[in-house]
Every structure is written in structure tokens, then in C-alpha cells.
Amino acid sequence: MAKTLTTLAAVAALGLGTATAQSADLKDMAWDDIVTQAKAEGELTWFHWYLQPAMREAVQGFEEEFGITVTIPDGTLDANQSKLLAESRREAGDIDLISLGGDRLNAFDPTALLYGPIDSLLPEGEKLRTAIQGGDSKGHAVAFWGNQTGLAYDPTRVDEAGLPQTVEDLDAWMAANPQSFGFNTENGGSGPALFQSVARNLVSDAVDFTDPSDDDSKVAGLAPAWDWFNSRESNFIITASNSDSLTRLNDGEFTLVPAWEDHLAGLQTKGEIDKRIKFYIPEFGMPGGGNVVGIPANAKNKAAALVFTHWLTSAETQAAFNATFGIAPQHPEADAAAALVTMDQRARSTDWAPLPFGDAVKNGFIENVALK
Prior knowledge:
The chain is an alpha/beta fold. It has helices spanning 2-13, 19-27, 31-41, 52-58, 60-66, 77-86, 110-113, 167-176, 190-203, 216-220, 223-230, 242-250, 261-269, 302-313, 315-325, 343-346, 357-370, and strands at residues 43-47, 69-71, 97-101, 131-132, 135-136, 141-153, 181-184, 236-239, 256-260, 278-280, 286-294, 349-350. The protein has two domains: 2-146 and 290-325, Periplasmic binding protein-like II (D-Maltodextrin-Binding Protein, domain 2), CATH 3.40.190; 148-288 and 339-370, Periplasmic binding protein-like II (D-Maltodextrin-Binding Protein, domain 2), CATH 3.40.190. Helix 3 (31-41) packs across helix 14 (302-313), helix 9 (190-203) crosses helix 17 (357-370) and helix 11 packs parallel to helix 17. The longest helix has 14 residues, at 190-203. It is globular and about 65 Å long.
């Protein structure tokens, strides 16, 4: 027995222990020692589902500073989450760090699948959000990307003082400007944010948008919202995607479309959408949320992933992401001067309807309005 224990200790000392042993070690290490181990690991694989080419460029500063290579594979959110779940029983998985929408934390137990809590390991973890967009990681993932839906508009074609601020304003504006307003139902969440917000304003007295349940009687309470859209179907156009809405706004077909703040800002930075296009959050409110990063419990390069997470969520990186991608910074000390909206307007941000009710709203619009 003594010989067996000595052998196991030697294996662990050589860095060949199990992922579980390495995880326990990190929790007992000083931050400088974690950085040293991260450099020894020398690499991490980050499963991130959007803007992959731009993010590969964005992480180069981290790679140069720490000598740690960051690999970002191509993949979708659903595929990455499925891989996380499928690999959870393996001793060591392929994912060192994973990005997820905050709401996706409700699809599994983050305390079982993700290493942590990491908020207590990160040097500034107490400043970071571990619950966002209706999901709570219990400290096992931290927010790094804040996003906000709102309305994008062409100020050369609309009087900014007359931009619709209430649902009644939007109704009157669409009637006065038929088919100048477009939004998507699929391939992006900006359109669903719009019709969820309108529905919330129209039927909130009868339907609780904070309750995740989607029983038939509750979903039936959305009918007045679908009637509202159906009676105005000649005044709006359903588009193919978030990007399609913005492209047609940019080209002059539309004057007003729902959009994501970060998506619009990113396209403007790349020159794909003209910088004349502006963005605001109407007074009737539109949902905002964000994305988190977490380290799978069986990740092979936990130290490297943890050091990268600290870099990613630092005030400096968050300010740079605000300038480059238009995100709402998730570090409270980050400079947000490049944001497309003012802090006053951010007070109009609402929460997304929690799942599965949020999906019922989207599916209800598609079934009762888009496909009719």
C-alpha cells in the first residue's frame, strides 16, 4: 500500500495525475503559482460560437503576454453545449473553456459540469457577475459579454425626435411608414426580442413574463398580442435574420429594425454597416442579457483557462471589447465610452422571458402570425 501511494504521489508530481487531482490543486494555489502552471500547460481550447475569426485576433494580446496558445474551433452554440454534455463522463474532455448564453445555465447543473467555483479563484472575481440572462452559475462561470437589444435606425430618413418610444408610438409610426419596419423571427434574437417586448406590454396584466412555465392556459393568454400583429401585417416585413434586417436598413429599404447593440457595433467596425446607423432602447423596454465562460470539470488545461478568464474579464479587456465589439462591459471599472447607448437608456433594459416560456412566445408568434 505504501508503495502504491508513493507511486501515485510521484505521478501527480510529474503532472500526470487525473483532472480531478489537478482541479483540487488549483484551489489551494496562490495566483502566481496558477499563472506558472498555466504557462507550463501552454495552451487552451476555447469553444466559442460567434465571431470566431475576430475573437482569434482579439486573443493575440493574451497569447503574446503569457505565451499560451488559444485555439477557437468553429462550432455553433448548440453543438458546443451538446459536446460539453456528451463529454462530461470522460476523464478528460476536449474543452478547456466554453462560452454559453446565460440562459443556457438552466439546461444543466453548472456545479456538476463546470469546475469551480471560479469566482473565488479569480483575483477580481468578486467584481464579476455569475448570474445573467436568467441563469445562475453558482460561481462556476462568469459573465464576459453583455448584450442588449433595441431599435436601429437611419437618422437620415427619420426624425430622431419622433422615434417610437411606446407600443402606441410604434403602432402609429408603422401606420405612417408602412413596410419601413422589418424584423426576423429566426436566425437571431433581435426580432423575437421585439415581439416579446410588444407582447409583454400588451398582455402583462394577464400573463406573468417572469414565470418560466408554459402551460396551455398561460400561452393562450398571448392571443391578444398575436391579434395586434396580425391586424398590422401590411405595415411590417419579416426578414430572414438579424443580419438581413441590418443590411436592408443600411441599403435604405427599411428605416427602423430591431437589432443587437454588439452585433451592429461589430458590423460597423468591420465596415459592413455604415456608421450613420444609430441605435436606441425604446421606453417600452427591450431585453438585454449576456454570455458567460466556464471551465468544464474535466478540462485538461484548467490553469490556462483560469488565467485566460481573468484576462478576458479584466477592466482593460472589457473596455477593448466595448470599443471593438460594442459589448456592455461586465467589469464594473471598464470604460464603456464606445457604447452605442447612454447609461440612462440602459435603465430601460428588461429581462428575457425565462425558458421554456420564452420559447413558447417565439413559437407562438411564428405559428400564429408569421405562418398565417
